[in-house]
C-alpha cells in the first residue's frame, strides 16, 4: 500500500537498496570463492584457472583430521545438548511458580548473552580446577554447555503451544508417564527439537572464541585452524576450504528450510556468527 | 498436580546450570581477587582503575557504540524494505545465509578484499583516489564488525515489523500523518522492542571482540575482549583477565536490565 502509493520510483529505490545490502553481504564470500581458483597464489591478480588449491586441501592430512574433529565435535555436542535441552525445557515448563520459572529462564539465558570471551575464559578456569585435560574432551564439554540454552529456547515455545488437555486425555486413557512423554509430548514438540538440534550444530561448527580458550595444544577445530593460518597471511588453500564449507552451509540451510517449511517460519531460527 | 509428576527433569538441568552457568561466574569472581602469586588481594581492581585500563574500556565502549549504531542504520531500512518486498521470506533467507558462513572465513575474506592490492584498493584506484591503507585501520575494524553483526540487528527488527498491525499505519495516513510522521510516531515506537534486542545482540559481543581486532585491526584496536585473551592465553595473568571479565559480566547484566527481557530472534 505504502510502497504502491509512491509509484514505481519508490519501489525501485527500495529494491536497489536491498540489492546493495545483498551484494555487500555476499561480496566477501564470492571473493574467496573466485580466488580459490586462482593459479597465481594470491587474492589479487587472477592468473588463470586451477584446481591446485583443492588438491592441496584434499592432500593435507592434518587439515582433513581437523575437519573430521570439527564434525565429530559438532554432531556429538549437538546430539547431547539437544537431549539435555529438551529435558531442560520440560523442567522449566513443569515449574508452576512464575518467579521460579523466570529465574530459571534468566539462568538459562546467561550463556546466550555472555560474551564468548568470558565464557571461554571461565570455562578454562573451570576445566583447570576440576582437572579436565584440555583437548577433545574439554572442547566437547564446552560445546555441549553453550548449546543447551539455545535448544531450551527452541523447544520451550512448542511446549507452551501444546494444549494441556492433550496430556489429560492421554492420562485418562491410561497412558503411563513414559507413554505420555514418548507418544504425545515428544511428537508434538518435534519441530522445536529439530530446530534446536540444527542451531546447536551451527553453534558448534561456527564457534571460535570459546574453543580457542579451551582447546589446548595438539587439538584444533576448523575455526581455530583458520585463525592461526590467517594470522600467517593469505593462503589459497583456505579459500578452497571456504568454498567447500560455503557449499556445505548452503546444503545445511536448504535441509533446514525443508524441515522447517512445515512449521512455517524461518525467522525463528535466528542467525549466528 | 499429581504426586507422580514430580519435576525429575529438573535434576540434570539444574546440574547443568550449577556446573556451567553458576560455577564459571563464581570462579571468575574468585580469580579476580587473587593476585599473580595466588594471594587474596584487590590489586587487580586497583590496576583496572588505572588510566591504561580506563582508556581501553572507554575505547571499547566507543567502538561498540559505533558498531551498534552503524548496524542499526543499515539494518533498520533493510528490515523495513524486506517486510514490503514481494518474496520476503526468500529475501530474508538470502540475507541470513551469510551469517551461517564461518565467522573466521569472512574475516579472512576481508584480509584479501582490503589488502594493499585487494579489490577495495583496485576500486579506489580506478575512481582516481589512489591506494590507501585500509587493512589495520579503525575503519576496517568497524566495517568488518558491522558486516558481521548486521544479521543480528536485522532479525529482531524484522520480527517486530512483521508483528506490527498494518491497519495502524493506514489509520495514521488516513488521519493525515505524513510518511515521516507515521514512521516517527507509529512505526518506530511500536518496533522499539526489536531495536532494543537488536542493539543488545550487537553491543555486548562488539564490546568483547578479539578475533577481528587481531586479524583486521592488526592490534591497533585493543578492546576488553582482546585484553582478556591476552591475559589468559599470553601473559598468563588470570587474575587480571578475570577482573576484566567480571567487569564485562556486570556491564552485560546492566544492559540486560536496561533493555528488558530479550525476545526470540537473533542470538548475541
TrEMBL record, chain A:
**Organismal lineage:** Bacteria, Bacillati, Bacillota, Bacilli, Bacillales
**Do the record's keywords include Cell membrane?**
yes
The record, for Pfam families, names: BPD_transp_1
Where are the membrane-spanning stretches?
12-34, 63-92, 104-130, 136-156, 234-259
What biological-process terms (Gene Ontology) are attached? transmembrane transport
A single GO cellular-component term on record? plasma membrane
UniProt keyword list? Cell membrane, Membrane, Transmembrane, Transmembrane helix, Transport
User: Where do the ABC transmembrane type-1 domain residues begin and end?
Assistant: 67-256
Subcellular location, record wording: Cell membrane
Q: What is this protein called?
A: ABC transporter permease
Q: Would you identify the family this protein belongs to, as annotated?
A: Belongs to the binding-protein-dependent transport system permease family. CysTW subfamily.
Q: Which InterPro entries match?
A: Bact_Polyamine_Transport, MetI-like, MetI-like_sf
Q: Which species?
A: Cohnella xylanilytica
Instruction: Give the primary localization class.
Output: membrane
As for membrane topology, the entry says:
Multi-pass membrane protein
Automatic annotation (TrEMBL), chain B:
State the name under which the record lists this protein: ABC transporter permease
PANTHER family, alphabetically? INNER MEMBRANE ABC TRANSPORTER PERMEASE PROTEIN YDCU-RELATED (PTHR42929:SF1), INNER MEMBRANE ABC TRANSPORTER PERMEASE PROTEIN YDCU-RELATED-RELATED (PTHR42929)
UniProt cross-references to InterPro entries, sorted A to Z: MetI-like, MetI-like_sf
- Which GO terms of the cellular component aspect does the record hold? plasma membrane
* One Pfam family of this chain: BPD_transp_1
Q: What membrane topology does the annotation report for this chain? A: Multi-pass membrane protein
Indicate the transmembrane segments per the record.
12-33, 61-83, 90-114, 134-158, 201-218, 238-258
| One example of a Gene Ontology biological process annotation | transmembrane transport
Top-rank lineage group of the source organism: Bacteria
Q: Cite the ABC transmembrane type-1 domain residue spans from the record.
A: 57-259
Amino acid at each position: 500500500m505504502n510502497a504502491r502509493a509512491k509509484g514505481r520510483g519508490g519501489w525501485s529505490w527500495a529494491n536497489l537498496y536491498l540489492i546493495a545490502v545483498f551484494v555487500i553481504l555476499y561480496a566477501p564470500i564470492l571473493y574467496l570463492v573466485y580466488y580459490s581458483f586462482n593459479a597465481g597464489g594470491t587474492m589479487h591478480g587472477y592468473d588463470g584457472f586451477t584446481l591446485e588449491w583443492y588438491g592441496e586441501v584434499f592432500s593435507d592430512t592434518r587439515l582433513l583430521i581437523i575437519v573430521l574433529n570439527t564434525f565429530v565435535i559438532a554432531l556429538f555436542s549437538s546430539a547431547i545438548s539437544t537431549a539435555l535441552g529438551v529435558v531442560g525445557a520440560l523442567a522449566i515448563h513443569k515449574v508452576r511458580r512464575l518467579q521460579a520459572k523466570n529465574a530459571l529462564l534468566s539462568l538459562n539465558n546467561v550463556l546466550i548473552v555472555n560474551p564468548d570471551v568470558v565464557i571461554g575464559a571461565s570455562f578454562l578456569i573451570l576445566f583447570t580446577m576440576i582437572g579436565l585435560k584440555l583437548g577433545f574432551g574439554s572442547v566437547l564439554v564446552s560445546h555441549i554447555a553453550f548449546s543447551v540454552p539455545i535448544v531450551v529456547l527452541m523447544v520451550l515455545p512448542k511446549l507452551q503451544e501444546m494444549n494441556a488437555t492433550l496430556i489429560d486425555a492421554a492420562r485418562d486413557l491410561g497412558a503411563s508417564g513414559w507413554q505420555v512423554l514418548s507418544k504425545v509430548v515428544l511428537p508434538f514438540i518435534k519441530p522445536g527439537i529439530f530446530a534446536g538440534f540444527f542451531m546447536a550444530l551451527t553453534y558448534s561448527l561456527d564457534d571460535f572464541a570459546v574453543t580457542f580458550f579451551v582447546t589446548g595444544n595438539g587439538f584444533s577445530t576448523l575455526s581455530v585452524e583458520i585463525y592461526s593460518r590467517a594470522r600467517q597471511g593469505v593462503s589459497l588453500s583456505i579459500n578452497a576450504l571456504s568454498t567447500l564449507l560455503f557449499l556445505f552451509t548452503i546444503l545445511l540451510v536448504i535441509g533446514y528450510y525443508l524441515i522447517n517449511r512445515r512449521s512455517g517460519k524461518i525467522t525463528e531460527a535466528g542467525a549466528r556468527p | 498436580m499429581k504426586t507422580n509428576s514430580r519435576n525429575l527433569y529438573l535434576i540434570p538441568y539444574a546440574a547443568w546450570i550449577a556446573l556451567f552457568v553458576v560455577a564459571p561466574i563464581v570462579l571468575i569472581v574468585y580469580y579476580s581477587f587473587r593476585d599473580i602469586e595466588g594471594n587474596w588481594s584487590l590489586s587487580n581492581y586497583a590496576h583496572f582503575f588505572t588510566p591504561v585500563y580506563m582508556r581501553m574500556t572507554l575505547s571499547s565502549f566507543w567502538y561498540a557504540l559505533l558498531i551498534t549504531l552503524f548496524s542499526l542504520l543499515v539494518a533498520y531500512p533493510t528490515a523495513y524494505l524486506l517486510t514490503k518486498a514481494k518474496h520476503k521470506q526468500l529475501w530474508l533467507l538470502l540475507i541470513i545465509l551469510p551469517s551461517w558462513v564461518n565467522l573466521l572465513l569472512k574475516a579472512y575474506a576481508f584480509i584479501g578484499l582490503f589488502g594493499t592490492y585487494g579489490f577495495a584498493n583496485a576500486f579506489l584506484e580506478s575512481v582516481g583516489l589512489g591506494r590507501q591503507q585500509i587493512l589495520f585501520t579503525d575503519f576496517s575494524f568497524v566495517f568488518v564488525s558491522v558486516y558481521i553483526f548486521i544479521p543480528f540487528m536485522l532479525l529482531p527488527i524484522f520480527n517486530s515489523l512483521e508483528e506490527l498491525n498494518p491497519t495502524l499505519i493506514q489509520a495514521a495516513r488516513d488521519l493525515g500523518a505524513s510518511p515521516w510522521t507515521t514512521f516517527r510516531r507509529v512505526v518506530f515506537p511500536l518496533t522499539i522492542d526489536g531495536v532494543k534486542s537488536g542493539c543488545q545482540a550487537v553491543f555486548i559481543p562488539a564490546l568483547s571482540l578479539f578475533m577481528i581486532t587481531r586479524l583486521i585491526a592488526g592490534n591497533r584496536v585493543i578492546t576488553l575482549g582482546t585484553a582478556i585473551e591476552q591475559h589468559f592465553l599470553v601473559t598468563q595473568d588470570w587474575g587480571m583477565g578475570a577482573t576484566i571479565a567480571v567487569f564485562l559480566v556486570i556491564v552485560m547484566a546492566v544492559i540486560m536490565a536496561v533493555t528488558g527481557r530479550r525476545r526470540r530472534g537473533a542470538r548475541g
